[in-house]
Design a protein that fits this description.
heterodimer, A: 302 residues, eight-stranded mixed beta sheet, 11 helices, globular, B: mainly alpha, 0% strand, rod-shaped
Chain lengths: 302, 91
């Protein structure tokens, strides 16, 4: 497939707008809506006919978060270095891929689409695939849980090869910012003055994807709460703004967007995690490309 | 697959769609904010005996001129949006 030739700023603008209004953009067939696509390095990869120089027997798919692009995984100043590429340099059997998607769509719809995409990818993979590792930053972690739910419900073959899921700063119990936006909008919508209600309506323009982040919804509300997929190792990585664990800033803001308790899914029942690590001094975005996190991932996954 | 030029043109048409729709919808919301804030002042003027006789007439004129202005902006933005939207995407 041809590489994406649009300027970087246009791609970022599309990602940000898709995060804010992605479901609306999609409904209007607006070309700014980011389509779901796989990438190998900088190049798009056709999931129905993946062409790779050295396809490995292990697939490591990294999934970005709200309003981000796959570039969030690259280390600053080192465009060819990411968690995926570090794992590959330690084991040639690992093929690192990244996903790009419209983060404003409801998480469950992206989850369904990702499950279907993985099923087709596994069918078309050029060599026998033995292992799949999914790594999600922020909303990407919720997308993994959603895709696993649909993959399991539809008896997808990729689920048999799934061995590890890594959630980096994922708001399993919701993000304080998304909760704050919802609470503010609800309050303003009940205000007696029209100018205040308009402010509430403007906040309510936010996408379904953002709304899902207020409670960490990975499936529609009427489908309950899916458990973590059994037989798979689940790892949680949390960031904290301040270097001192006990600093009040950490209690107030967590990694800036997600509290440590939410990243650990402490309100979820029946979760058995294979590993959990917190990184004081690493904020939400840097969780996707930090050397300390990389060392932890190598230790867990290799 | 689209060429770079086609992709770039599509992208800008997408921006135009967002902008025209945003201006049309934003004008409607601004109209409501403007009129409801103005009502706060007109309500005060209505309670003062000296200004009461004129306040209703001024409110009426103010509101109608404002509505005309905001709705004209919304209509122009809407029209521009329709013109810039490819036929297969028109609603």
């Amino acid at each position: 497939m041809k590489s994406d030739s649009s300027p970087v700023w246009q791609r970022h603008a599309s990602a940000i707008l898709s995060g804010f209004l992605g479901d609306w953009l999609e409904a209007r067939k607006n070309p700014l809506a980011v389509p779901m696509e796989l990438f190998h390095g900088q190049s798009p990869l056709d999931h129905r006919a993946p062409q790779l120089d050295v396809p490995g027997s292990t697939l490591c798919l990294s999934i970005h978060g709200l309003m981000e692009l796959e570039s969030v995984w690259t280390f600053p100043g080192q465009s060819d270095l990411s968690y995926g590429s570090l794992l590959t340099s330690a084991s040639r059997e690992i093929t690192p891929l990244t996903l790009r998607y419209n983060t404003g769509r409801p998480i469950y719809r992206n989850g369904e689409a990702l499950a279907a995409l993985l099923e087709e990818l596994v069918s078309a993979w050029p060599v026998p695939l033995e292992r799949i590792v999914l790594m999600g930053h922020s909303m990407g972690g919720l997308l993994i849980r959603s895709a696993c739910h649909y993959g399991q419900a539809q008896n997808h073959r990729w689920m048999e090869r799934l061995t590890d899921c890594v959630y980096l700063g994922s708001p399993h119990d919701g993000s304080w910012l998304a909760k704050g936006a919802k609470a503010t909008a609800d309050l303003l919508n009940r205000a007696p003055r029209d100018y205040l209600r308009v402010a509430g309506e403007v906040i309510d323009l936010r996408s379904e994807g953002i709304r899902n982040l207020s409670r960490g919804d990975v499936v529609p509300a009427d489908q309950g709460e899916p458990p973590l997929v059994p037989g798979v190792r689940h790892f949680v990585v949390c960031g904290l703004l301040a270097r001192s664990r006990t600093h009040p800033v950490n209690a107030l803001f967590g990694d800036a967007l997600v509290h440590e308790a939410s990243a650990r899914g402490e309100e979820r029942t029946g979760w058995k995690l294979a590993g959990m690590a917190s990184f004081p001094g690493v904020d939400h975005i840097r969780l996707a490309h930090h050397p300390d996190v990389a060392r932890q991932l190598v230790e867990w996954l290799l | 697959m689209k060429t770079g030029n086609e992709g770039g043109r599509e992208w800008w048409l997408g921006v135009a769609d967002v902008l025209t729709h945003g201006i049309a919808q934003g004008a409607g919301k601004l109209e409501r904010v403007h009129l409801s804030i103005a009502d706060e002042t007109f309500n005060v003027l209505h309670r003062i005996p000296v200004t009461r006789p004129w306040s209703q007439a001024v409110r009426f004129t103010h509101h109608n001129i404002s509505k005309l202005s905001y709705r004209s902006v919304a209509a122009v933005a809407d029209g521009a949006g329709q013109l810039l939207t490819p036929p297969d995407r028109r609603r």
